[in-house]
């Protein structure tokens, strides 16, 4: 092993649910997510701590003796070191921190305040079987979490080369999209 030959070498293992970001099309000003409370509801409906286990089975690795730092990305990914603020830490505002707390009841309250007490349906653009199981598992989990608060996503599998890259990823879509190679997730 390489580290055996390096004096005082240390290995730091950490994981973040950094396998994509949710993008909202704000072209249609009457769309539910044009209201920031809906976007916030969608954020607090996601169990951010569970995303690590959903994507990477961190819980199983821990049972085998591996110690992992569980870090959540913020607007700046944790890998950026000194520029990163832990969304669960003391240096972040209470308002921002609340958006990383799994709270389906609060999500339903936010939806009701935005006029969507009974939920809504929207298109959800995705690319499956392209970026591996972690990506696909996160998408499936988000669909379940959002479904629990009344948001039904009509899944649209974009062709990667002809639709997703030239159109969806460039912002030419309606509804919501999950971008697999995002680096700056921010639930606000």
Please mark out the parts with pLDDT under 50 across 5 or more consecutive residues, or reply none.
none
What would the principal axes of the Cα set say about the shape? globular
Number of helices: 7
Helix content: 25-40%
| CA distance, first residue to last residue | 43 Å
Which strand order do you get reading across the main beta sheet?
2-6-4-5
Order of helices and strands: EEHHHEHHEHEHE
Mean pLDDT: 81
The whole-angstrom Rg is 18 Å
Number of strands: 6
Into which percentage range does the β-strand content fall? 5-15%
Helix/strand class: alpha/beta
Largest sheet: 4 strands, mixed
Structure notes:
The structure is a single chain. The protein is of the alpha/beta class. Helix content is 34%, strand content 14%. The strands form 2 sheets. Strands 2-6-4-5 form a 4-stranded mixed β-sheet, covered by helices on one side. A two-stranded parallel sheet has the order 1-3. It is globular and about 60 Å long. The termini are far apart. The model has no long low-confidence stretch (mean pLDDT 81).
List the helices and strands and how they pair.
Layout: E1 14-15, E2 21-24, H1 36-44, H2 48-56, H3 58-63, E3 69-70, H4 94-98, H5 104-113, E4 120-126, H6 133-148, E5 151-157, H7 160-168, E6 176-179
Parallel strand pairs: 1-3, 4-5, 4-6
Antiparallel strand pairs: 2-6
């Amino acid at each position: 092993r390489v580290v055996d030959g390096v004096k005082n070498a240390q290995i730091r293992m950490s994981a973040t649910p950094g396998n994509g970001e949710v993008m909202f099309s704000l072209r249609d000003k009457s769309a539910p997510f044009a209201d920031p409370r809906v976007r916030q509801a969608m954020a607090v409906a996601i169990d951010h701590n569970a995303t690590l286990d959903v994507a990477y089975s961190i819980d199983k690795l821990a049972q085998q003796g591996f110690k992992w730092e569980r870090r959540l990305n913020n607007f700046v990914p944790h890998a950026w070191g000194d520029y990163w603020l832990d969304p669960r830490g003391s240096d972040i505002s209470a308002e921002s921190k609340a958006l990383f707390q799994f709270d389906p009841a609060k999500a339903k309250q936010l939806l009701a305040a935005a006029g969507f007490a009974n939920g809504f349906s929207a298109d959800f653009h995705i690319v499956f079987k392209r970026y591996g199981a972690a990506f696909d598992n996160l998408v499936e989990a988000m669909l379940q979490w959002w479904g629990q608060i009344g948001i039904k996503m009509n899944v649209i599998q974009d062709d990667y080369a002809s639709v997703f890259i030239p159109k969806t990823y460039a912002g030419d879509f309606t509804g919501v999209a999950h971008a697999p190679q995002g680096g700056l997730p921010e639930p606000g």
